UniProtKB/TrEMBL annotation:
Family classification: Belongs to the cytochrome P450 family.
UniProt xrefs under PROSITE patterns: CYTOCHROME_P450
The protein's name: Uncharacterized protein
Swiss-Prot/TrEMBL keywords: Endoplasmic reticulum, Heme, Iron, Membrane, Metal-binding, Microsome, Monooxygenase, Oxidoreductase, Signal
Biological process, per Gene Ontology: organic acid metabolic process; xenobiotic metabolic process
The organism of origin for this protein: Pyrocoelia pectoralis
Pfam families named in the record: p450
Length: 479
């Protein structure tokens, strides 16, 4: 009897081993798979050795090619690294879906419907192409300059990465609600968004790959952290929605929430529009807009500190084109090509350490000649497109705004797509580019930024929802 049981168990384990380690025909090459965990252990060790997942994908691509097939837990995943394959990933309709796993659905009531067209239309109506955006940016710039002037009255030493979060959140809040946050509300929102940025990587957490762990060790696998942070942000948005419903009327400043509530009154449950989806959409706007813009500005000013000659050249351009009589606006971008190059080069360096939002194959398809089964998750590493010589970047790790200039004119390479391309192109591109340009140009017009004597900043990067630099200080003086 015992012999039969042992034999059956052995057969079962052998079948499990075979089934769980068998790769689909013509699936992209990659590390060997083990039963249950796939190649999670090898990826973990690589991550530990390299420091960032971006560098892990570079290592894997060097060994297996620009498309690498892995399995983490039960989930088939493909890392896309090379420039050609990266563009194919972004442009192919077969890969236009977002993941529908626990990582995606546990943040938004277990559901996921997308209303991107409505969001884009309303954001354009609210201000992306109107003077209201310039007014918002100008007001926030006055506040940033005021904060810096107060610091200069003391010792002039300021934590640069602390300059921007509150003002970026205010901009996003105005676009959503039509009004600014109170100080108490801003403190509440800022704490929640900081927790999000610091604790939630775009590429997923342990419970995402092994969902059963949320029942066994929800703290260790990150599930409780993930859900609780999203609950805090969603509670803030929900409070705003409730308030706007109560005071809704013609006197109300229009924001995205106002427009969505009007749409709900029209459709009355006959479509996918719902208050739950309103909260989920606002959550996406906040998390993506806040993290990307703040971290991009951190990269810009870190490199300006490390390259004072670049800062001086940008200031000379601002002085010759605008002078000191008025603040820069986004309309000045065509006339300030070198400042634009500084922004682009910083975006290249941050994007090259990032991943695009994960995609899901909606049907059996191919990528770079390999078979991609339906449901496969595709992780697009931008490193091979923005930080690799094979993509046409000479000395890609070097900060060099001149690479975007040719004969004194702005020259943007075809593979410079920091906001993505195709149907999944970032909806906040217009606002992000305007924010970053106006803040950089305005601060360089007004101040000099130098390294704190005896304490130069280090180029230390941190993984998160988007890459960031570690907090650093600068010595700031009026020009």
């Amino acid at each position: 009897m015992w012999l039969i049981l042992i034999l059956l168990l052995t057969i079962f384990l052998l079948l499990l081993w075979y089934v769980d380690t068998r790769k689909p025909n013509n699936f992209p090459p990659g590390p060997k798979w083990l039963p249950i965990i796939g190649c999670a252990w090898e990826l973990r060790n690589l991550h530990k050795a390299k420091g960032t997942l971006s560098e892990v994908t570079q290592e894997l691509a060097a060994k297996y090619g620009s498309v690498v097939g892995v399995k983490v837990g039960r989930k088939l995943t493909v890392f896309v690294y090379g420039s050609t394959a990266f563009k194919e990933l972004l442009s192919k309709d077969d890969f236009n879906a977002r993941p529908d796993d626990i990582f995606a659905t546990s943040r938004t009531f277990g559901k996921r419907r997308e209303q991107k067209k409505f969001l884009i239309h309303q954001l354009k109506e609210i201000g992306f192409h109107k003077p209201i955006l310039e007014e918002i940016l100008a007001e926030e710039m006055r506040a940033i300059i005021h904060d810096i002037n107060k610091t200069i009255e003391d010792d002039g030493v300021i934590c640069v990465t602390n300059l921007f979060p509150v003002h970026i959140l205010n901009t996003l809040h105005i676009l959503m609600t039509g009004d600014k946050c109170s100080d108490q509300e801003m403190e509440e929102l800022h704490k929640a968004m900081n927790s999000f940025s610091e604790n939630i990587p775009l590429t997923g957490m342990l419970f995402n790959h092994f969902p059963f762990l949320r029942y066994i060790c929800p703290d260790y696998c990150g599930y409780n952290t993930y859900v609780n942070i999203h609950k805090r942000v969603l509670a803030f948005i929900s409070k705003k929605v409730k308030m706007l419903k109560e005071i809704c009327g013609p006197q109300l400043s229009r924001g995205f929430i106002h427009a969505y509530l009007e749409k709900l009154n029209v459709v009355k449950g006959k479509s996918s529009f719902s208050e739950e989806q309103l909260l989920a959409t606002c959550l996406d706007v906040l998390t993506a807009g806040f993290d990307t813009t703040c971290n991009s500005l951190g990269f810009v000013f870190l490199y300006l500190l490390l390259h004072p000659e670049v800062q001086q050249k940008a200031q000379e351009e601002i002085d010759s084109v605008i002078g000191r009589g008025r603040p820069p606006t986004s309309e000045d971008r065509p006339r300030l090509p070198y400042v634009e190059c500084v922004v682009f080069e910083s975006l290249r360096l941050i994007t090259g350490r990032a991943f695009v939002v994960p995609r899901r194959a909606i049907r059996d398809s191919t990528l770079n000649g390999y078979f991609i089964p339906k449901g496969t998750i595709l992780q697009g590493s931008a490193r091979g497109t923005f930080l690799d010589e094979s993509a046409g970047w000479k000395n890609p790790e070097v900060f060099n705004p001149e690479r975007f200039m040719k004969d004194g004119m702005l020259c943007i390479p075809d593979n410079f797509i920091p906001f993505g391309s195709g149907r999944r192109r970032c909806v906040g591109e217009i606002m992000a580019r305007a924010n970053i340009f106006v803040i950089v140009a305005s601060l360089l017009q007004t101040f000099n930024f130098r390294s704190v004597p005896g304490s130069p900043p280090k180029v230390d990067f941190v993984e998160g929802f988007t890459p960031s630099v570690k907090p650093f200080k600068a010595f700031v003086t009026l020009r």
